[in-house]
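Hi W.,

Here's what went into the run:
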Amino acid sequence: MTAYLIRRVLQGIAVVFGVTLIVFIVLHALPGGPARGMLGPEATEQQVQQFIVANGYNKPVWVQYWKFLDQTVHGNLGYSYTNNQNVTTLLANDLPKTAVLVGLAYLFALVVAVPLGILQALRRNTAVDYVTTGASFIAYSMPTFWLGLLLILGFAVSWRLLPAEGPQGATAAAVLQDPKAMILPVLTLGLVTIASFSRFMRSSAIENLVQDYIRTARAMGIPEHTVLLRHLLRNALSPVITLIGLSLPVVISGAVLTESVFNYPGMGLLIWNAATEHDYPVLLGATIVLATVTVIGSLIADILYAVADPRIRYS
Amino acid sequence: MSLEPSMILAGQPSGAGAEAAPEGGDVRAAGSAWRMIGSVFIQSRLAILGVAIVVVIVLFSFAGPVFYHTDQVHTELAIANLSPRASHPLGTDDVGYDVLGRLMVSGQQSLTVGLAAALLATVVGTLWGAIAGYVGGVVDAIMMRVVDSVLSIPPLVLILLLTAVLRPGTTGLILVIASYAWLIPSRLVRGEALTLRTREYVQASRAMGGRHGWMVLRHIAPNAVGTIVVQATFEVANAILLLAALSFLGVGPAAPSTNWGSMLNNGLNYMFEGRWWLVYPAGLAIVLTVVAFNFIGDALRAALEVRLQVR
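Here's what came out:
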């Protein structure tokens, strides 16, 4: 287990290191060079020159990279002149709000997808299976933003049940104060996630249902619900832990779209605004932070999976 | 954009997520493996449906404008914002473009970019993965950490970053979308290459003095072709979704070019005024196309699994 842990952590560090390299390369590809790109078109030539000297952009590339890495590790991700704020402060402000949205969407997706997948597996190749599988196929091919638009058209415009805009609180706690406005964003991001989770859960459950341990449990006369809850669920669920870790990049992408549709004040909205305004410091900083988040997420998932399923540790 | 099951499988330590074995008892091989894949594929009603939808949408987008003439170049405010009626079956938008005609023209870009990005990504990913898996060792470790690194960046964030920096045109956008789409194919092909390189025929070819380049191109890549084709189909669906997402966010290819995503971006402004015809048709076109490609990919994968079972 320790060897496995060490190997996975080292791999994770290598990946984050790789991401900083990618960002450093993009930094040099910025229109007008790194200094002009980071300072924006409004900066004077003198400011650009000062920036070049202060950040060592007149030194050899490896010195530049070292300095960049040093700053990044110490939480200095540059300054956004568009927002007139530190990138680190901006991200630290908005990341928790995105975490709330993503967390609630995962929770909603799991609560629906796990029983749904097991139901599909138990009733496989019946009308129930076909209808639910078909529905999840469509949901899973649906662009997140369009699903959001449809929900707004239905719940906000036609039936006037829910607000069309997400909560506008400044902090994660404030966002949670407005649960009614939270419903549609969570529903949007959750539904797309349910589609892929239930497909995964269905095949995981089918695979386990044909195993000997299920047959033995049934042959021993254990009630069916105990077989399902105690034996099947536990075994079919453990790969889902990995799924949560692996799906993080895609779900975060979905969050960017969801936040844009609902004007939800999280990191996705920040990234979208930065992309339209060519606010490179924010884009580069967000890339590093989100990549680190997904690496840590999948690391935690892998460790939990190894704890839940000893076979993984020794293979 | 949606989460790809194959994407999850690519990172799975075990085969835990693999689709369960198709039922239906013994399947006996008649003729070549390819013929059998073909017959299993044809037996799948969803696959046929998928192919049919793709054909209809391609004809609709490329041949449609020949039969259904609309002016998609000049704006005409006199006929702007019309609801659907006989002269404009799907209404008109805010500058007087006929929505049905616009759907056809937009489809051309959505399909072209989707297919081109998927093709490019598949070629690059296949070569990358085949080389990494075949060479192995440190080279493999470095090449795969590159893949892991890019893969750890949420796809939309990576693509928003690249579009903001490069400000690409339509061709550039194909490259930008492919810059993410090649990752999963490379992982899958690398996995195949790891097992293929230990096979006797590869060893024999090596012993006879075959060059490394020959190994990768003649023995590794062609034998992973099933996996590659299945994944390429899913990548088309993903690329269409990514283009739509980018255009919806307003950072896709600039006007006057249009795709289904940019139609939705425009429709968003008039949604609260109840102009549903600016929201439903373009969205449905995206969903239909993506569903169709996913059907095809699923059926191909099932067909491939049957072949593996008979072996």
